[in-house]
Design brief:
The protein is α/β, with parallel strands linked by helices. The chain has a single domain (4-255), classed as 4-Layer Sandwich (Purple Acid Phosphatase, chain A, domain 2). It has helices spanning 18-35, 64-75, 94-98, 130-139, 142-149, 153-165, 185-194, and strands at 4-8, 39-45, 80-83, 102-104, 108-112, 115-120, 201-204, 210-216, 219-224, 232-236, 241-247, 252-255. The strands form 2 sheets. The protein has a 7-stranded mixed β-sheet with strand order 4-3-2-1-10-11-12, covered by helices on one side. It has a 5-stranded mixed β-sheet with strand order 5-6-7-9-8, with helices on one face. The protein is globular. Residues 168-172 have low confidence and may be disordered.
Length: 260
């Protein structure tokens, strides 16, 4: 049987509330069941959770169905690659120890099959957004993380959850508008990378908008969309990559028509 590599991002489990999140979490588990027979590697490209912070003896409650299924896949020998996003950047060693996944805090370059991939969540890359880039440096500073860990989990997680609820990525709707190729900052960033090295596919999340844009005759930019509005993901068969959409009602996958 042909084996495929799958890419998914921006599920934001936990948002906007437990009930709505549970619906998406169950859809995610159904999708994992669907791909289980042919998945060779799974890339979760950021913002699986709407918020995550690991205290020494505590983690956010919930997500047991998703975490259990991911652990099951890992136990079967399927490599799971977890990229931190701007909402779950404080993933440390809990997921690697409990699930067996590999965690990445920065973009990576990987050869998959016949193609070369550049993979990352996408936050803080490209021109502009200097305010967020400054805040990101603070949040990723070990001393800042140590200070936050001093807060009681009930207060710390509650505070962070409140902050997350005010984010534009809470629903994805405000940001999920195509800006035009020359204004899509991850497209601009990808073109800059191409000046230094050859890449076949750039895979990003963060934008909450499924996009497939040809950068040149050999390189393509892919944004994975989200699982709030679009339920999209990408599948790579060793030669070509395709954006797909999952129908939570019928539990079926269909090709997704993209912009760009």
């Amino acid at each position: 049987m042909q084996k495929n590599t799958y890419f998914i991002s921006d599920l934001h489990l936990g948002a906007p509330n437990a009930a709505a999140s549970l619906v998406r979490e169950k859809a995610f588990v159904n999708w994992l069941n669907h791909i289980e027979s042919d998945v060779e590697e799974l890339f979760i490209v950021g913002d699986l959770f709407d918020f995550w912070f690991e205290y020494k003896k505590a983690v956010p409650r919930g997500f047991v169905r998703a975490l259990g299924k991911l652990a099951e896949l890992s136990d079967k020998g399927i490599p799971i690659h977890f990229f931190t996003g701007n909402h779950d950047m404080w993933v440390f060693d809990y997921l690697p120890s409990e699930i067996g996944c590999t965690v990445y805090h920065k973009p990576i370059v990987r050869q998959l099959g016949t193609k070369k991939f550049y993979i990352g969540h996408g936050d803080g890359l490209g021109p502009g957004d200097y305010g967020y880039k400054f805040i990101k440096r603070i949040f990723r500073n070990p001393f800042s993380q140590w200070l936050f860990a001093r807060l009681h989990p009930n207060f710390g997680i509650g505070l962070a959850d409140f902050s997350s609820k005010s984010s534009r990525k809470k629903t994805g709707d405000a940001d999920a508008k195509f800006l035009g190729e020359d204004k899509e900052w991850l497209v601009v960033y990808s073109k800059e990378v191409l000046k230094e090295q050859s890449i076949d596919y750039f895979i990003f999340g963060h934008r909450h908008l499924p996009l497939e844009i040809s950068l040149n005759e050999n390189s393509t930019y892919i944004n994975l969309g989200d699982w709030i509005q679009y339920f999209t993901y990408a599948v790579f068969d060793g030669n070509a990559l395709q954006l797909m959409a999952w129908n939570p009602q019928s539990n079926q996958a269909v090709p997704h028509l993209t912009k760009g």
